[in-house]
Amino acid sequence: MSKSDIQIAREAKMKPIHEVLAKINVPNEPDAFSPMGRHIAKINFEYLEKLESKKNGKLILVTAITPTPAGEGKTTVSVGLADGINKIGKRSIVCLREPSLGPSFGMKGGAAGGGYAQVVPMEQINLHFTGDFHAITSAHNLLSALIDNHIYWGNKLNIDDKKIVWKRVMDMNDRALRAININTKGVAKDFPREDGFDITVASEVMAIFCLSNNLQDLEKRIGNITIAYNKNGEPIYAKDINAQGPMTVLLKEAIRPNVTQTLENNPAIIHGGPFANIAHGCNSVIATKTALKLSDYVVTEAGFGADLGAEKFMDIKCRKSNIKPSCVVIVATIRALKMHGGVEKEDLKNENVEALKKGLVNLERHINNVKKFGVETIVAINHFVMDTDNEVNVLLEYCKSIGVKVNKCTHWADGGKGTEELANNVVEICEKSNLNNFKFLYDEKDNLWNKIEKIAKEIYRASKITADEKVKEQLNIFEKNGYGKLPVCIAKTQYSFSVDPKLKGAPTDHEIPIREVRLSSGAEFIVVICGSIMTMPGLPRVPAANSIALNDKGEIEGLF
User: Would you call the peptide bond into 246 cis, given omega within 30 degrees of 0 as the criterion?
Assistant: First the structure.
């Protein structure tokens, strides 16, 4: 019987964090990093400033085919690849997002990898970690409190309480909080209004946190958050109620990147964590840029499939931070491809070459989409023990037939040793890559409707986008107010190229309905909410929380 992820993590022989940092030449000095216990540290800005003149390493983006309940293993591949690159004698850091408590106690589970391709200490990373998410939640809700307080004490800015666009947040799946009534009793009963909660990873503060270059940039962006409109329809910003100062104070320590280690004691930077289906889905710019200065090869991931995660990584993160990937790794599993070919989850253990061939259209679509950005791709087959040789060979031959490099990866069972071939191929691609070939999907000068339409038609292969007049008018207002050049962040289901999560494979000629658009003037993008996607998820019928508890030894059980 194989060991569970948590058993493997618990048996890890972790090194003191200063020894892990020594691998990337970070000195064991107070101005370089601050230990957060024995195995975690935060890198200090004083040290980061000294790295600015250093040459950047190569950036490798790990993305995936469209997710299924069968699992794809993007994080395990990211960790395994970084370990593999270190194993072939190169210096590599893996850069990941911090897990949210919502999916950890909901359906998805944690985000620390799995098997022998994990980052540790796994329990801490998947739970409260260094408290960054709590700081982001507190900063966000401080702004909410300041808005209602301003109205209570006379409303000098003439805020229209029907046009407050700033909700509250918490880092938990709780559908009951999507829409609430506040100020219904007590001293504030004369100021009742409707409000609601989003999950913290959908907060604009999270997006700002992950797109800021430093504390000064963070404070400026926070000040630019649009919180409401006045009775004349003019925007009110966070800086108008002097919120940027105290909010930045709450984020002062959180904004420093966190360093942990893989099971093979290689450095891992884990920082920030916006969802990819309802936000832009990338770890912080500060973390990625730090890793690029400290190593030769940086492995980072974008959330969910390439249609959501990779597109946003390129069109939002790369555009805003002036970084470019040298290689894109697309993770695929035999299991998931068979599901895209029509196989039910309970039948995946049986060989089914025909279903696999049918499901290959999903992989092909993602490969073609990534090529639109001018970056060479390689396919990583995340190997499961029940995959048959016939199935693996079909996938290997298919990739070779379309001229795409491919490697079978056994990192879950073998750690870095299981990704050495992938590592060699990735390094080869990186060394010959021409960053001048990189391009965005759309020009910032395109109007907002055209940007949305271009993503829908070129990435999702939709026939058209639709929206009611209210949404179209809102887009016009954004452009009139000077936000027309901002990139767009599509919020939609991760389970399909369409807005129907049941539509697997590579659907075409479907319709993308836009339900709502939101201005993130601090993060500097427009959120476009499509279909029935929720910015406050709910828990499943049987949440993961039902199985999480302490055992007789005081150890956590059920976390995955």
Answer: no
Could you give the domains of the chain? 5-130+254-436 (3.40.50.300), 133-240 (3.30.1510.10), 448-530 (3.10.410.10)
Residues in the chain: 560
- For the chain, what percentages of helix, strand and coil (3-state, to nearest 5) are there? 40, 20, 40
Residue 405 is a catalytic residue: no
105 part of the active site: no
Tokens representing residue 392 in the block: 């693996």
Among candidate residues 23, 58, 90, 97, the one labeled active-site is: 97
pLDDT single digits (tens) 406-448:
999 999 999 999 999 999 999 999 999 999 999 999 999 999 9
Catalytic: which of 276, 310, 423, 544?
276
Two tokens, residue 301: 């991931």
User: To the nearest whole percent, how much of the chain has pLDDT over 70?
Assistant: 99
Catalytic pick among 66, 68, 75, 76: 76
Instruction: Give the position of tokens 């990534």.
Output: 370
Instruction: Please state the φ and ψ torsions of residue 113, each to the nearest 5 degrees.
Output: 85, -165
Give pTM, 2 decimals: 0.95
- Give the residue from 554, 557, 471, 556 showing the smallest Cα distance to 512: 471
Active site residue 175: no
CA neighbours within 13 Å on the CB side: how many for 496? 17
